């Protein structure tokens, strides 16, 4: 069967998405590939379709047990024979999977990278007819990546040991130019066909806010999304526990996930979220890589992540099926010091000869992340440019582009701050941090301020009429304008640049683009961003179809999105199919799923139409 027929039969699509076809064709012809595609762009189809068409067994190297289970479950629902091998299997289950794989029962076999080194699996691989090797989350091979895993460095050696080298495919969603080079080199890809479809996720609405009370703001945002599923990321285990308890206390169905929980508790909580028994997952960054739950409608960061790569990967778990989704980051200046502490703490585990280099790298990434949080420009453009893409200055689909902004002359405030920093530099050559300078400017009676005699300086208390948030905002503006900088280090200090002299002594003006009336505005509900739900989707029908999906999923004990994604339900609600032929025209509906689920969904649509007609008749 040719590729388009298989694409429709098993995956429910009549055409390839950007970048997919060139990678599929390359793997079918025996070429290596490197695919850099955003979450939700359909990376898995790029190797799953060739696996179906080629003779033999495709190996998929995947970093997480949860990802393997989700992928294999989705394949089963689509009618594709697949299995996984990882530490969750008993010895007898492991042997059974190998036996079936030898007999040709599977087309895809998902394995953890650590499994490649085990003698028993290596013996199996020497005998198996391996059609291709796909490396998922390929950025894990690079020390420049945010999720470096040493076991990924063994993949190239394993492939080299096979009797016949199969085509190799490497796939990732987030990779800078340096990481892409590492993937190609360390996996020993041979003249790979490359496809980078860009990092833009037009269905995601990005926003950064600085609320005075994060917990109150989080509760308010979740109340706007009572029927939606999402993730709340926190920087520490302690913060996860605090937020989780607060949400449960407010009657919000939440689960928690962090490395301090037992493996069983983590598995149970993850299943509660995946199966929609808990609609909110509160977690550290230990949760999520490879989570295939497509109906996540929002991702909220309670704290700022340590780098842009992690943020974009975590935020990108929203809207995987293409539906509109919301990505909110709640920023506070103390998030920066927390992130610095975590970076210095984790750096102690690095080899001594690499510590200084890795520390500089991580602190540099942190400054880029802080720049995103403080930016008044287009947030989407900031993210895309970080990954090396060109982007317009206005997207119309982020919190900054849709905010009411005003330009203010803050030259007087800037001169006060710069003068304070200059006096501190003269008194203390090593400098002082932002917090102490803000306290000094606002006339704080804090013990540390008086111990350092900051209350004796002429600039003490000259900005007492301004709030701490306002002064911090002005400092951020001066950093962005190039008048100030914070040096890298565990305890970074605020310093003047040469540009500051122009403001202090030569009459140069400083303007600040700010939100009106201030930067502590509430997160908005992006009901009408530049990417919206199709106008012909009736929400009552969509909810009826989603309810039916939940019933079928519960009966079969599978996650709801495995039955159909939100995007498929939206297309169904828009097209309102009347028969099986029209049902097959719905995006995401293949022959296997149509045969399995077509009748109940067609019946529910017919029932909705009948109720609509009756309502219209009564209304007359």
Number of strands: 17
Structural class: alpha/beta
What's the arrangement of strands in the largest beta sheet?
3-4-2-5-6-1-7
| Main sheet: strands, sense, barrel | 7 strands, parallel
What's the rounded overall pLDDT mean?
87
Q: What form results from the Cα inertia axes?
A: globular
N-end to C-end Cα span: 53 Å
Total number of helical segments? 25
Low-confidence stretches: 517-521, 527-532
* Radius of gyration from the alpha-carbon trace, in angstroms: 27 Å
| Strand percentage | 5-15%
Helix content: 40-55%
What does this entry look like structurally?
The chain has 620 residues and is α/β, with parallel strands linked by helices. The chain has 25 helices and 17 strands. The strands form four sheets. It has a seven-stranded parallel sheet with strand order 3-4-2-5-6-1-7, with helices on both faces. The protein has a six-stranded parallel sheet with strand order 8-13-12-9-11-10, sandwiched between helices. The longest helix is centred in the C-terminal third of the chain and has 29 residues, at 591-619. Mean pLDDT is 87; it is low at 517-521 and 527-532.
């Amino acid at each position: 069967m040719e590729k388009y027929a298989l694409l429709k039969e098993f995956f429910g699509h009549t055409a390839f998405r950007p970048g997919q076809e060139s990678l599929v064709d390359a793997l079918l012809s025996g070429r290596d590939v490197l695919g850099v595609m955003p979450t939700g762009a359909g990376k898995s189809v790029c190797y799953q379709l060739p696996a179906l068409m080629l003779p033999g067994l495709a190996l998929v190297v995947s970093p997480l047990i949860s990802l393997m289970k989700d992928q294999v479950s989705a394949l089963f629902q689509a009618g594709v024979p697949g299995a996984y091998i990882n530490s969750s299997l008993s010895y007898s289950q492991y042997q059974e999977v190998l036996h079936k794989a030898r007999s040709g029962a599977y087309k895809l076999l998902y394995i953890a990278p650590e499994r490649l080194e085990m003698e028993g699996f290596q013996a199996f691989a020497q005998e198996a007819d391996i059609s291709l090797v796909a490396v998922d989350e390929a950025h894990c091979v690079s020390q420049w990546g945010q999720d470096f895993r040493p076991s990924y460095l063994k993949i190239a050696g394993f492939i080299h040991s096979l009797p016949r080298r199969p085509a190799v495919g490497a796939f990732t969603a987030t990779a800078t130019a340096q990481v892409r080079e590492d993937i190609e080199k360390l996996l020993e890809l041979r003249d790979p066909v490359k496809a980078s479809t860009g990092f833009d996720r037009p269905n995601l609405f990005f926003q950064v806010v600085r609320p005075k009370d994060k917990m109150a703001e989080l509760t308010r945002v979740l109340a706007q999304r009572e029927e939606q599923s999402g993730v709340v990321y926190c920087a520490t285990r302690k913060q996860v526990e605090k937020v989780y308890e607060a949400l449960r206390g407010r009657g919000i169905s939440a689960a928690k996930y962090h490395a301090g929980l037992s493996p069983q508790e983590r598995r149970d909580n993850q299943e509660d979220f995946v199966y929609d028994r808990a609609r909110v997952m509160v977690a550290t960054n230990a949760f999520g890589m490879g989570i295939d739950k497509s109906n996540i409608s929002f991702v909220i960061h309670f704290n700022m992540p340590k780098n842009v790569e992690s943020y974009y990967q975590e935020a990108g778990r929203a809207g995987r099926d293409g539906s509109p989704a919301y990505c909110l980051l709640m920023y506070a200046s103390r998030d920066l010091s927390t992130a610095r502490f975590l970076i210095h703490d984790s750096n102690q585990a690095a080899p001594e000869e690499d510590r200084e280099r890795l520390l500089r790298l991580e602190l540099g990434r942190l400054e880029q992340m802080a720049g995103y949080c403080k930016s008044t420009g287009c947030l989407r453009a900031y993210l895309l440019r970080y990954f090396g893409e060109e982007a317009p200055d206005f997207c119309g689909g982020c919190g900054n582009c849709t905010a009411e902004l005003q330009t203010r002359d803050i030259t007087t405030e800037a001169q006060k701050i710069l003068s304070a920093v200059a006096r501190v530099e003269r008194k203390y050559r090593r400098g002082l941090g932002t917090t102490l300078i803000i306290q000094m400017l606002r006339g704080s009676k804090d013990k540390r301020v008086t111990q350092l005699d900051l209350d004796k300086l002429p600039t003490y208390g000259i900005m007492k009429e301004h709030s701490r948030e306002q002064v911090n905002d002005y400092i951020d503006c001066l950093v962005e304008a190039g008048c100030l900088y914070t040096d890298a280090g565990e305890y970074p200090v605020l310093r003047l640049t040469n540009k500051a002299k122009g403001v202090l002594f030569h009459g140069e003006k400083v303007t600040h683009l700010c939100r009106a009336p201030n930067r502590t505005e509430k997160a908005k509900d992006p009901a009408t961003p530049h990417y919206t739900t199709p106008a012909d989707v009736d929400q009552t029908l969509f909810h009826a179809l989603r309810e039916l999906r939940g019933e079928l999923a519960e009966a079969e004990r599978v996650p709801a999105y495995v039955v159909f994604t939100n995007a498929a339900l939206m297309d169904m609600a828009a097209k309102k199919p009347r028969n099986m032929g029209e049902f097959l025209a719905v995006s995401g509906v293949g022959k296997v799923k149509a045969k399995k689920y077509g009748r109940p969904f067609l019946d529910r649509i017919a029932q909705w139409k009948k109720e609509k007609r009756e309502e219209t008749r009564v209304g007359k």
